[in-house]
Design a protein that fits this description.
alpha+beta, 11 strands, 23% helix, 32% strand
Amino acid sequence: MAKGSLMKKLFFLISLILIFVTNAGAGPSFLGPDTVPTFPDYDSPVKSYTKDGITYDIVNRSRPGDSLLLGDPGYSNSDFTGYYIGTVIDDNDDPSDILNLARLFFNDNDFVFSGTAKTEVDNGLAVPENMSDPYISIIFDAWKDNNQLEPIGGSWTLVNAEVNQEISFYTVKGADEYALYFVDPVAITGSFITDHVLTKNGNIPALSHFTGAITIGETTGEPPHVIPEPGTMMLLGLGLLGFAGVVRRKINA
């Protein structure tokens, strides 16, 4: 009984080691301790930030259940991709604004993008700004008052991207506001809504344009751990089983 019990414990330990190593780091990249966001302040109706001489007035237009950077283990909304950061009011977004806001968000002046891609809406059609470079293709699936000239939701995809080029931030512009989202892990496709922007009358507007910030490789979140290759796992498993066999022979001796 003692020998059998010892062998059961040994094989149980080996199984735990194999499971742990196999699953190590299989999760997505997430914010590390050095990338704590500096805004928005959800306790204030309006929060103002100034970067490179430009002041951004940011409000919280989140809905119950929205994924915010407030300890969420991950975003799981079905109607938009990423974390909703906040809405800039009374302003038009520009690629330089996204960079400024990202630097504010991460409190890091060295944060850079490899480029941006902007797609505007013209009479209900999505028109990319430049189709020779990586651009955003949008397919609409929701419209304001069933008017297919006024889209309020859909999916986006980064097209003609190079290897490892993906979207890490994007803005959704409608009326005189634009909402900012952080995507981690980075993605080449996702979904969007216009629920986080409002008209002067407090209504949800149609999409004016969508701008994505392109990142190469990982975002500033912690890089994923390396998952061992199958060959490495096989060698490790054989080594552990061999060790178990040696122990068993010694016990039987």
